Amino acid sequence: MKKLGKMLRKSIVFCFVMIVICAFIYPFALTGISQLTMKNKANGNLIDKNGEPTSNAEEAVGSELIGQDFTEDYFFHGRVSAVNYNTYTEEQKENGEYSGVTSGGSNYGNSNPELEKRMEKDLETFLKEHPDVKKEDIPADLLTASGSGLDPHISPKAAEVQIETVAKNSGLSEEKVKEIVKSHTEEKFLGIFGEEKVNVLKCNLDIAAAMGII
Q: Which helix (H) or strand (E) holds 185?
């Protein structure tokens, strides 16, 4: 019994020490280090209306890592979102179509008829908004949803097919819009890993600034 009691005390002390280390010391240490070495990233890569990093939530217009739902015809539009970038009407909320901040895809398989219907509907909408674009020229990423549902990027080709419409509706020249896209095109990591991508929010902030609306 004495030996058992000693083992029990050791077990309790061990559990208590691990709880203190794992639940308090470790997370607080990581939080402190991240705030000192990479404050902007640790706070969600928030940016202000000038596209500059900010840690002030009131100044922030979004995160460069989280996509937004842009409906204005003078802005670039991002990828299809299964969670609608968490923007829902009051009616949708009342109908239970919105259950809070979410992230994720629809998980529709290629053989799912709902996927075909959704893509046809989005294709029709895109062609209506961009009458000068041919169906076969629309990049796949503009009709396929990302795994997160909050993708902040589109491919350079997806930005290219929207340039004419954005320029016409914003009053900017196509050359100016192309410059904006180029300035916010992120290259492949180390030149070989991943794909080139365009940050939609940063492009739209520059467009809004050029239009004088921010």
A: strand 185-186
Tokens of 139: 């990049």
Structure tokens at 104: 């994720």
Q: What angle do CA 108, 111, 112 make, to 5 degrees?
A: 45
> What CA–CA distance (Å, rounded) separates 68 from 205?
12
Q: Which residues of the chain have pLDDT under 50?
A: none
- In whole angstroms, what is the distance from residue 53 CA to residue 3 CA? 59
The pLDDT assigned to 76 comes to 96
Which residues share a beta bridge with 53?
47
Of 196, 184, 207, nearest to 64 by C-alpha is: 184
Of 159, 155, 157, nearest to 181 by C-alpha is 159
Helix (H, G, I), strand (E, B) or coil at 41: helix
Q: What is the CA radius of gyration of the chain?
A: 23
With tokens 């000068």, the residue in question is: 132
Condensed to tens digits (0 to 9), the pLDDT of residues 127-152 reads 999 988 999 999 999 998 888 888 99
| Residue 57 in tokens | 């939530």
The helix/strand/coil state of 63 is strand
> Which amino acid appears at position 49 of this protein?
K
**Rounded-to-integer distance, Cα 33 and Cα 27, Å:** 10
Residue found by looking up tokens 């095109």 in the block: 185
Per the confidence metrics, is the pTM higher than 0.90? no
